Amino acid sequence: MTTDNITYREKGRAVLLTAMMVLSVVAMSAAFVGGAAAAENNDVPRFHDDQTVYPDDTIFQGEDDIDFSDDFTGDRLIGLESQGAEGKTLSLPVDEDQRTGRYGDGDGHTVLVDEPRVSDITINRLNSDDPNDIATDVDGSSISTADAEHMSIVPEYNYEQAEYAEITVEDEDGSDVTNEVLSGDAVVEDGEAVLMDLSNEDAGEYTITVEGEENLDFGDAVGTTTVELITDDELGLEIASDEVVRGDNLQYTVTSGSDSDRHFVTIDSSDFRDGISLENAEKIFRNVDDTENVGVYSNDGNTTDIDDLESVDDVDFVWAEVEMDGTSAAGSIETQYLDDSSIDLEVYDTETKNASDADGDDPADDLSFDVTEGDISIDNPDGAYVVGSEVDVNGTAEGSDEVALYVRDNGDWELIEDEINVDSDDTFEEEDYALSEKDDSGILNLPGTYRFGVIDQNDAEEVWDESDSSISTSDFNQGSSATKSLRVTEGGLSAEFETINGEVAEDADGNINIFGSAEGEDKVVVAFVDDRGNTEAYSYSVDSDDYTFDEEDVPLGLSQGTVSGHVLVDGRDGEWGDSEEIESGADNLADWINNLGSGSKSLTGDQIRDRIASKTVDETASDDRMVTDTFRYTDASTTIESVYSEGNEANGINPVALNDTIVVEGTTNIKPDDNTITVEILDENGDVLETTDTDDWGTDGNWTLEITPETIDDLGTYTIESDDGETTDRADLEIVEEIDYGDDNKGDSDDNKGDSDDNKGDSDDNKGDSDDNKDDSDDNKDDSDNNKDDSDSSDSSDSSDSSDEEDSTPGFGVGVALVALLGAALVALRRDN
């Protein structure tokens, strides 16, 4: 190889290496430029840059004037599965209602579509021009002009990648005052603070709006808040009313303050209600609303705990510390513990840092309000009361937390009960309240007319006698009170022993039902005594609502015969007789009576009845009461008294025409519902043809049944039988072809009423053909011509209707008898032939 060849080869290598280096530099430069472009795209919104959307960017609903980069394979993207936009397409510009989610070109390049939102707008009160020197936030609140010089607006939004947000400030009239009150550009980045000064603006509500500077000015991309600007008036006080009923809460407001500042509000002890406790004094200012603390300030110059004080006389004033919420602070006063007069309320400026400062400083503002006594009314009791009874005591008491009940005869008012709560609607009520039992003075235990009163609890405590809580008439009337007349009476006693026809069936029932009323009583004693001196006694409760008692199936267990039943109550004094032999209480009397019947003295029934009366109602000065009744205690008995065709009522056992409905009447001494009376019709063989039953009859023991024959086809005599499960009774029943009752037996018509005594009798004269019967009276002119001509038939019919049962021929009329006689004569003639 020559030197020239080597030189050419080396030169070629050098040229190739130089070309590769140049290409590398170009490639690196291109990559750098692309990276720089992407970095620049991330730092500034697309609206302020090349408006190009690159893979993995977030774009927003409503975004306009943008294009996809060349990285995407097309201008239409498809929603990706499980990415929120499946099945949707995306093209530019983005619709305002475009489905949010991720879209792609199918070649791995995607973008995310999101909803533009303003998430928060904070308005801060600053201590200086430094936006980080924040005193408090006041958005949605208020601020005074003195504090409005240094303020900031801090928006938070999510669409900074697309465009910046712009702030607009409008006054109460809707005028745009943005350029006047903002220091700096109104277009801000997410989280950037913009300074604002409202100190020179008019009072009113200012609206701050944040929205996209270009396209994003719809829906949640726009956010607003307000701040109330209040002029620099002096600190003041306002109250809900200049007059309040004592006991009602009074709302007060400290005005024209600065947000978060604290102020003391006070009431002097000279405005306290007489006789209140230290605990009540501490409750005058309620710890509610913007109140931070409440307390008392003592005369010796110490803000102290009430436990360190001996009485309310050691208190100089009470105080409340309130914190301003914006430019105002609300609090509340419990007027129950204030005097019924004009009350002074004072508020102090921020220089008063504690209650001791308020003792010497002058108030920034003060006002007065009047406290008046509330009205009390009594709704119930309504003017009458039965000794021992339970009633509802209720009424209204404006402004009272508690009331006390009193009664008066001729002297002072005597306490019945105190500390009865009054509800928030100014009503009080004590249900099922036994006035006479609560009245320790005993006034309401005696019949008479008295005064019943209700008084405010605090008023009562101010004036009552410490020994017995009594109140003089003048003091009672001066307090917040109400009275009414109350007539007190003794309760009545009534009782009824439920028997059937005056009897109780031992074998069927063996028990008895008792019901009645006993006003003012909580229990009654029920006792039974038979003639042999056996007793059964029980105690039963009385319904406290209507003072009735109703006991079913009270067992007897006595000897048959006459039994006396007694119901006793112990009256007003709650004692039996003179209480020497029988202890108080219904159970004790019942035991005592049972012991009389089971003792070894072998007392008769009358002797035991005398003992019961002598130790209770007949005892000297006794107010016991007793109701007594007698009945028969015997075997069950059910009898058949009458049988007749329906519509033809008659006493006794009467024949019934074939196919007529049969009415059966009878009497019993067994109780309905628990027992059943069955009636059967038997044939000559004792087989049951018809049956029916009933369990419904009254206490008179009378029962009625109707039988519609369905299997009785033949004329003749049958047996009708009643059965109550304990006893039976039978009677013969004649079933006949027909019964001619005639006009006389079909009701109480004027025709029947006009019959003479001659027609009513059973004599043979009526059965004959007398002229009197042949001549039809005016009453019988409605009879048919056949009846007029056939006087014998008419007479016979009248006689049959008027005669007793013994003269009738059930089942065989006169015509049938004549036919039978003619038949017998024909038979005799044939035999002769």
Automatic annotation (TrEMBL):
Key words of the record: Cell membrane, Cell wall, Cell wall biogenesis/degradation, Collagen, Glycoprotein, Membrane, S-layer, Secreted, Signal, Transmembrane, Transmembrane helix
Statement: the UniProt record of this protein carries the keyword Membrane: yes
Source species, domain of life: Archaea
Keyword NADP belongs to the record: no
Location, primary (coarse class): membrane
Biased composition (Basic and acidic residues): 743-771
Pfam family, one: PGF-CTERM
One biological process term in Gene Ontology: cell wall organization
Family annotation (InterPro entries): Csg_halobact, PGF_CTERM, Surf_glycop_sig_pep
Compartments reported by the entry: Cell membrane; Secreted, Cell wall, S-layer
Biased composition (Acidic residues): 772-782
Residue ranges of the region described as Disordered: 738-812
Job of this protein: S-layer protein. The S-layer is a paracrystalline mono-layered assembly of proteins which coat the surface of the cell.
Family membership: Belongs to the halobacterial S-layer protein family.
This protein's name: Cell surface glycoprotein
Organism: Natrinema gari JCM 14663
Taxonomic lineage from the root: Archaea, Methanobacteriati, Methanobacteriota, Stenosarchaea group, Halobacteria
